[in-house]
Amino acid sequence: MTYSAAQHGWGHPGPGAGGDPDLLDPAGAPVPQYGTGSLADLLPTLAAHQGVPGLEATITELAPADRACVFLVDGLGWEQLAAHPAEAPFLTSLLGSSRGGTGRPITSGFPATTATSLASVGTGLAPARHGLPGYAVRNPATGELMNQLRWQPWTSPQVWQPYPTVFQRADAAGVHTAQVSAPAFQNTPLTKIALSGGTFHGRMTGEERMDLAALQLAAGERALVYTYYSELDGAGHRHGVDSDLWRGQLMHVDRLVQRLAEQLPPRTALYVTADHGMVDIPFDEDSRIDFDEDWELGAGVALLGGEGRARHVYAVPGAEADVLTVWREVLGDRFWVTSREEALELGWFGAPGSCDERVLGRIGDVLAAAHDAVAITASVNEPNESALTGMHGSLTPAEQLVPLLEIRSS
After folding, report:
1. Phi/psi at 194 (5° precision)
2. Number of other CB atoms surrounding residue 380 within 10 Å
3. Long-range CB pairs of 56-60, under 8 A, 24+ apart, other chains included
4. For residues 56 and 43, is the Cβ–Cβ distance under 8 A?
5. pLDDT per residue as tens digits for the range 154-199
């Protein structure tokens, strides 16, 4: 049976905000399944099964395994995978295994973007707690935008994200813990605050990573191993998720997963997942709303953060209500537009009431999450990001739903 997002309340806007039937109601936006089926729940569940203290197995569909491997494929959304069976026959054969054999995906988290998702995976915390709530967010200490993927401008990683990673906790509990990824990621601040713990092994090719991940799994009676592949996401950003180059990358990913699966040591569970899906945005004025050329959207705005499909809007002090009103009037038929307070109450960033004080000022006074195939670009201040074909970040099924494919060895 094919999973239907509609069966679980995904992708259906509620009544119009403020009673206006033409406006999308933020309360009708699909909310990530924090605490039961999100990326933030994956590693705590696996580590709890291995006896790591202080963690809970909240994805209840998953069975314990002495050895566990997470293979995160950047940009491999559930809907994109399901739409390309010819390019990914091995992965397609595993769709029914997703989420413990239920055949269902899990959710990324908001926003559905790499920095936020990797922090959720590695810390086991929702964005409201780990504090990486977007691609680029305001640093309350300086008033500047902080790009959390590139870590610019520099700020102390441990101050920005002070919680221990699941890998660190597992390593302290005697689990053999390792990350296998591209060498360039070894010393990045994002790796340090989200994915450190145990040993890091840098390998250039995907094949080398699969082979070494298998060896690392066999290196301990209990093992927790993470490996990563980024090139599918890059092809989607540059050329779109239905381009020949993207399809070629998906074919390569399919072969890599099968290569790793064939080498799993005994008592191992391999989970293939992703940080987000992706949406292609047409190159026309209706689909790409240029903030840098729109005086109405810019009125009262001090900083524009986030990314095209998940914007954090920081208002000039005192202008928050006016900015919210204007953004709803201009964009509310295509975006879920809400205030920081309402987004937190609705559970966009984590369970209501769970937001750390240090994180509040990083979240926009106004949030705009795309419902349609549209984006808010910034041609002057974000020329590279504005030129991308494939984008992500919002709450739609195409961006939020990610696989949790499972392969077990005896």
Report:
1. -120, -35
2. 11
3. 59/99, 59/100, 59/106, 59/404, 60/36, 60/100
4. no
5. 999 999 999 999 999 999 999 999 999 999 999 999 999 999 999 9
The identity of residue 303, as a single letter, is: L
User: What 8-state DSSP symbol labels residue 15?
Assistant: S
Chain mean position to CA 350: 13
- The answer to whether 409 and 260 have CB atoms below 8 angstroms apart is no
CB under 8 Å to 29, separation ≥6 — which residues?
13, 336, 346, 348, 369, 371, 395
Backbone angles phi, psi at 306, to 5 degrees: 70, -140
Its pTM surpasses 0.90: yes
Transcribe 222-270 into DSSP letters: SEEEEEEE-HHHHHHHHH-TTSHHHHHHHHHHHHHHHHHHTTPPTTEEE
Please state, in angstroms and rounded to a whole number, the distance separating the CA atoms of residues 210 and 352.
39
Q: Given phi > 0 = left and psi -120 to 50 = alpha, else beta, which region is 18? A: left
Quick one: which H or E segment has residue 285?
Answer: none
